[in-house]
Amino acid sequence: MTPELGFDVELQLAGRLALGLVLGAVIGFERELHRQPAGFRTHSLVALGAALFTIISAYGFSGSSVDPTRIAAQIVSGIGFIGAGTILQYRGNIRGLTTAASLWSVAAIGMAAGAGLLVMAIIGTVLILVVLSLLDRVEAFARRRMGISGGPPRVDRDDGTLDDLP
After folding, report:
1. What gap in Å lies between CA 158 and CA 51, rounded to an integer?
2. Is-contact 15 8, C-beta < 8 A?
3. 21 within 8 A of 51, measured Cβ to Cβ
4. Is the pTM of this model over 0.85?
5. CA 10, CA 6: separation in Å to the nearest integer?
6. Which of 19, 34, 128, 143 has its CA 20 to 30 A from that of 28?
7. Tell me: the pLDDT tens digits for 124-162?
8. In contact, 84 and 100? CB cutoff 8 Å
């Protein structure tokens, strides 16, 4: 049996969904700019879905036998399946691991937004963006400074040009 919610509560929950979507989209946009396999739409949907599942878990059911943490645990497990689909192995190199981690983190952002932890969702988003953008530059600087080659593997096209792998 689902409890009756007033219009004001449902409006507040809709705001949580919207915030989860927007924060996921921001992180997805950063991934899209780096031409990663999961970008804007994927990150948006993961955050929105996690927020919706969290709201359903917290507000959708009532009774003494209801355990709202069960759905949260399944979100974490389910996102692992999606993340695994973004990880590729090509000639001994692993690609997509950071994107998988960002999807996992975006699910947490969506869960925080859905649970009403709005400041935590925003701070988490900012920190994820710092990791994805700033630490990438720190890593590139360290590689140059230490003389370590790196970067994504490239593949030769028929016309003689090189393409980065997704």
Report:
1. 45
2. no
3. yes
4. no
5. 6
6. 143
7. 999 999 999 888 788 888 888 888 876 555 444 554 444
8. yes
